[in-house]
Amino acid sequence: MTQNENKEQFVETNMTTKEKIVFHAGKLFSQHGYHGTSLDMLAKACGVKKPSLLHHYASKQEIALNTFKNLQNYCEKSIFAIAHDEAITCQEKLQQFAVNVEHFFTEHPYSALPSALATEVVDSIEAFNQPIQCYFDTWQKFIKQIFITKQQKIEDRTASQYLNQIHGALLMQRIYHCPSYIKHACQQIFNTEQH
C-alpha cells in the first residue's frame, strides 16, 4: 500500500457517510467528469449501495454541488486565510501562498474539480454557473488581496492573468502527470511580484 493510499484509508475511517460521498465524488468527477461519473461508480467507490447515496443526497447534481462547496471551504481555510494573518509579514504571506497553492494543486485529491466541471457543465447545467463563477472570483479576489498586502496593488486583469497561469499549469499537470508545472507557475508569479 502506498503512502497516499494509507493516508486516504486513515482519512476515510474518520469520515461520515456523507463526507465519504463528497470525498469520492470529488475524485471521480475530477477523473471522469460529471457526465462520466455514474451514481453506481460513486456507490462502489464509497462502499455503499446506490439507495444509500440517494438517502444522503437527492441527486448526482446535489452531490457535485456539495463537493464543490466542500472544495471552496477547503480553499478558504487552507489557502485564502493567510491573507488575513497579521502575525506574518507580507513577504511571508507571499511565500506561504506559493507553498499552499503548489500543495493544493499537487496533493488535494480533487483540486482539478473546478476546471473539470467548468469545461463540462457550465453551459449545460445552470445550477453550476454561480458556484463555478464564485470559485474563480474568490481566487482572483484572494490573489489581488495577497499582493495588496505587499503594497503593490495589482489590477483585476493581472490577478486574472495569474489565475489563468495557475489553472493553465493545472491543465498541463493533468495532461503530462508532472507536478512541476504548478511549482513553476507559482514561482513565476512570486518572482514577477518581487520586482
Structure description:
With 195 residues, the protein is mostly helical. The protein has one domain (3-194): Tetracycline Repressor, domain 2 (Orthogonal Bundle), CATH 1.10.357. It has helices spanning 3-13, 17-32, 39-46, 50-56, 60-78, 90-107, 113-121, 129-148, 156-176, 180-194. It starts with a helix and ends with a helix. The relative contact order is 0.10.
The CATH topology comes to Tetracycline Repressor, domain 2
Strand content: under 5%
Q: What is the CATH superfamily?
A: Tetracycline Repressor, domain 2
**Overall domain count:** 1
Total strand count, please? Answer: 0
Largest sheet: none
CATH class: Mainly Alpha
Query: What distance lies between the first and last C-alpha atoms, to the nearest angstrom?
Result: 45 Å
**Residue share in helices?**
over 70%
Helix vs. strand class: mainly alpha
Arithmetic mean pLDDT:
82
The H-and-E topology, N to C, reads as HHHHHHHHHH
Low-confidence stretches: 1-10
Instruction: Return the CATH architecture.
Output: Orthogonal Bundle
Tally of DSSP helical segments:
10
**Looking at the structure, what is the overall shape?**
elongated
- What is the gyration radius calculated from CA atoms? 18 Å
Quick summary of this structure?
With 195 residues, the chain is mainly alpha-helical. The chain has helices spanning 3-13, 17-32, 39-46, 50-56, 60-78, 90-107, 113-121, 129-148, 156-176, 180-194. The longest helix has 21 residues, at 156-176.
